[in-house]
Amino acid sequence: MGIPGHRRWIEVTPDLLDLLSKAGEGADTDELAEQFPAEERDRVRSAVGTLTELGVLVPQEGAPPLPPLWERWGAVAERFHDEARNANYLVHSPARVELVEDIVAEGDSPDIFKEYPDKPVVMLPRRPLRLDERVEEVFATRRTHRRFTGAPVSLDQLGTLLFHSFAPHRFIHGGPFGAQQCRVSSSAGGRHEVEAYVVVYDVEGVQPGLYHYSAARHALELLDPDAPRERVAELTYHQEPSYEGAFTVFTTAVANRLAWKYRHPRAYRLWMYDAGHYGQTFALAATALGLGPFQTVAFADSEVERFLGVDPDEEFAVYLLSAGVPERPGPLVPTDFAFPPPSEVR
């Protein structure tokens, strides 16, 4: 059991667990002791005193109120926040060399690519489309789109978007950690734990279905030919732009690619950062291609993982990206707000 506000833990015996269960949300010490046999009551009072000293139990009259943030997010989030703070990255420390040697000596480094070699493959165009749009135009018109025309997306557009969003552009030598990928999006330690699963609805030259994007081969590997919009709608609480574009991309994190190198609780943050990096690259590349991007985390995690066929203990869903031909391009100024006429502006 974690001690609130401290990076400390205690082992809870079955007897202590029984005591805490009987205490519930709060109890008078004597009344609590009365729930146990007479010969155990002094031990109960002693245990209550010890747990109070540790901060596991708090006297009602002296209980400090939780800050509003943790009242809203709960004690589990507070504990995680505390554990993930102030990690020692051992930069320029002799201990870093020893740690790296220990990690490498263990072996079993995770694969840097995931592939489904026994699945049917759709090879994507090897030469991506040129992104000639001026960068300031892309920044100015980048929007989260929620309405699409229903027109199909070309294979070249999809291939270019997946290449810039998820494929390595080159490789570097990562020293004892082996080859490392260089993608457009930054990734902690070059681990690139993000995988992309593409649900195709309306892409020229690609049959509808659920695919895995092979970053190693720049190809789509068919996992399930039966993946209609209605199925994705069920997974995303019927949030229309999640499935009304030409395709949907579910991204996952292959956790051990990170955990193998970064072995402290703070590293749990890293896949969140990386998911955001990939999401923004996807949105900007889609905008440059004339597509309308959308992104959300509103989906049923466990159901999505079953849909993708991944083991949630090893690989879990993190982000949903989609795109299609937008109903209208992103304007240079906001148009979704009601501005007062000039006469009413003071």
TrEMBL record:
- Show where the Nitroreductase domain sits: 140-324
Q: Name one Pfam family in it.
A: Nitroreductase
Annotated transmembrane regions: none
Specify the protein name: SagB/ThcOx family dehydrogenase
Q: Which InterPro entries match?
A: Bacteriocin_Proc_Enz, Nitroreductase, Nitroreductase-like, SagB-type_dehydrogenase
Q: Which domain of life is it from?
A: Bacteria
